[in-house]
C-alpha cells in the first residue's frame, strides 16, 4: 500500500470543500460562454494575476500550447530555456502541431536565462532564419529544482524581450509557489508578460485544469486555438468550481509544502550517497543527485516501504504537496536511510557530518531563519 506519494504535486486529490462545490456548481455550455462558474473562475484568475481575461484549459500543456500558438504562427520561432517544461516534457507540441521552432538557450541553476543568450537567439536574420516572436520563461522552474524567479528577475527577462521586439509567455504552472516563496503579490511575477498559464491541478489540489490569462485580444485568439485543439468543454463549471475553492483557500497553505520540502531536503542531505544542497531548495520540489547511479534501485526499495517516487538513474525528484505532512517526511527519511544503505551496500551509518557541524534538525531550523526570500 502506498503511504507517501512523492512523485508529483499532480497526485493531490480534491478537498472535501472542492467536492461540495463541484456537486452544487451552477453550469452552462462553456463553448457558448454560458457557464457562470467557469466565467467567475476565469475573471477571478485574471484579476489575481493582473490581466484582462482568463481562459480555462484542460491542462498546463494545453495552456502553454494554446498560448504559444496564439503568439506565433507556422514558421515562427520562440526562445526558451533548455530545461523548460515546454521543451522537455510537452511532446514537442508547439513544433508538431503549430510548426513553431523552439530555440533553446541554457537555463542557469537559478532558472534564469542569460540576456546575451536571449539576444543572440532572437537576433534578426535574413530569409534563412525563422522569425523569433516570443520568449517563454518558467516560474517556478521545475527541472532546476522548483527554483523561483523573483519579480526583479522576471522584469529583467521582460525588458530584454521587449527590447528585441518579442512577446513573453510565462509557464507559471506553479506561479503561486513562487509568490508564496517571495511573499509577494502574484501580480509582481506576471507584470509585463503577455500571457501566463498556471495549473489548478498541482499544488492547488484541483482534479483538473489550468488557466491562461492575458489581454482580451490574446484570450480571444487563445479561445480559437483551444477549440481547434479539442479543448472546448461544455458544462465545465463542475470542475471550475474546485478552482474557485483553490484560489480562495489553497494558495497560502503552499507554505506548508515548502516547509516540508525543506525538512526533507535537510534530512536527505545528511544521508551518505545523496548529493544535495538543501539550502537551494526553495519551494515544493527536491531534486538530488545519486552519484552511485542507483536511483532506480532506491526508488524500487522505497516503493516496498510504501513510498512512491519517480524512477531516475543518477537523480531523483521528490515533490511535497497537500497529501504529505510532516510525519510523512519523517517516515520517508527513515526509509530513505535504510534503503540507500541497503542499495549501496552499507550498514546504516551515523548522519553525515553537516557542512557546518549542525545536525539535520539544527540545520533545518537554521534554514528557516536564513532562507529569507530574495527579490
Ligand atoms: C513547469 C510545468 N509546466 C507545465 C506542466 C504541464 O502541466 P500538465 O501536466 O497539466 O499538462 C508541468 C507539469 O508538471 C510543469 O511542471
Which structural class should the secondary elements be placed in? alpha/beta
Which CATH class of the largest domain?
A: Alpha Beta
What is the string of SSEs from the N terminus onward? Answer: EHHEHEHHEHEHEHEEHHHEHEEHH
The percent of residues in helical segments reads 40-55%
**Strand element count:** 11
Kindly report the average pLDDT value: 93
Largest sheet, strands/sense/barrel = 7 strands, mixed
> Considering the protein shown, what is the CATH homologous superfamily of the largest domain?
Type I PLP-dependent aspartate aminotransferase-like (Major domain)
Q: What global shape is seen?
A: globular
List low-confidence stretches: 354-375
Counted by DSSP, the helix tally is 14
Under CATH, the topology of the largest domain is which? Aspartate Aminotransferase, domain 2
CATH arch. level architecture of the largest domain:
3-Layer(aba) Sandwich
Q: Beta fraction of the residues?
A: 5-15%
| Biggest sheet, spatial arrangement of strands | 2-8-7-6-5-3-4
Give the C-alpha Rg: 21 Å
Number of domains: 2
Distinct small molecules: pyridoxal-5'-phosphate
Q: Roughly how many Å apart are the termini? A: 42 Å
Q: What brief labels describe this structure?
A:
375 residues; alpha/beta; Aspartate Aminotransferase, domain 2; Aspartate Aminotransferase, domain 1; 2 domains; seven-stranded mixed beta sheet; two-stranded parallel sheet; 11 strands; globular; binds pyridoxal-5'-phosphate
Amino acid at each position: 500500500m502506498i503511504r507517501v506519494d512523492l512523485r508529483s504535486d499532480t497526485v493531490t486529490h480534491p478537498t472535501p470543500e472542492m467536492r461540495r462545490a463541484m456537486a452544487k456548481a451552477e453550469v452552462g455550455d462553456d463553448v457558448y460562454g454560458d457557464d457562470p462558474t467557469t466565467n467567475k473562475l476565469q475573471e477571478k484568475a485574471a484579476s489575481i494575476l493582473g490581466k484582462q481575461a482568463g481562459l480555462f484549459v484542460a491542462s498546463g500543456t494545453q495552456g502553454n500550447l494554446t498560448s504559444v500558438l496564439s503568439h506565433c504562427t507556422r514558421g515562427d520561432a520562440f526562445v526558451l530555456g533548455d530545461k523548460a517544461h515546454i521543451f522537455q516534457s510537452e511532446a514537442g507540441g508547439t513544433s508538431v502541431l503549430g510548426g513553431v521552432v523552439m530555440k533553446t538557450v541554457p537555463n542557469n541553476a537559478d532558472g534564469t536565462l542569460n540576456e546575451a543568450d536571449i539576444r543572440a537567439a532572437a537576433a534578426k536574420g535574413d530569409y534563412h532564419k525563422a522569425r523569433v516572436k516570443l520568449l517563454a520563461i518558467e516560474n517556478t522552474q521545475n527541472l532546476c529544482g522548483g527554483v523561483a524567479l523573483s519579480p526583479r528577475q522576471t522584469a529583467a527577462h521582460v525588458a530584454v524581450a521587449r527590447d528585441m521586439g518579442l512577446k513573453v509567455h510565462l509557464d507559471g504552472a506553479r506561479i503561486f509557489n513562487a509568490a508564496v516563496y517571495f511573499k509577494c503579490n502574484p501580480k509582481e511575477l506576471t507584470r509585463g508578460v503577455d500571457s501566463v498559464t498556471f495549473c489548478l491541478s498541482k499544488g492547488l489540489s484541483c482534479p483538473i485544469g489550468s488557466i491562461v490569462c492575458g489581454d482580451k485580444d490574446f484570450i480571444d485568439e487563445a479561445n480559437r486555438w483551444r477549440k481547434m485543439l479539442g479543448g472546448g468543454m461544455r458544462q465545465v463549471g463542475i470542475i471550475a468550481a474546485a478552482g474557485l475553492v483553490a484560489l480562495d483557500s489553497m494558495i497560502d497553505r503552499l507554505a506548508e509544502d515548502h516547509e516540508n520540502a525543506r525538512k526533507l531536503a535537510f534530512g536527505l542531505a545528511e544521508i551518505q550517497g545523496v548529493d544535495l544542497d538543501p539550502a537551494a531548495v526553495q519551494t515544493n520540489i527536491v531534486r538530488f543527485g545519486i552519484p552511485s547511479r542507483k536511483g532506480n534501485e532506491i526508488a524500487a526499495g522505497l516503493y516496498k516501504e510504501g513510498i512512491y517516487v519517480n524512477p531516475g538513474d543518477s537523480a531523483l525528484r521528490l515533490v511535497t504537496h497537500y497529501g504529505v505532512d510532516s510525519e510523512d517526511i519523517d517516515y520517508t527519511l527513515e526509509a530513505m536511510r535504510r534503503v540507500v544503505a541497503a542499495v549501496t551496500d552499507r550498514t546504516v551509518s551515523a548522519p553525515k557530518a553537516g557542512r557546518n557541524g549542525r545536525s539535520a534538525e539544527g540545520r533545518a531550523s537554521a534554514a528557516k531563519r536564513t532562507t529569507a526570500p530574495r527579490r
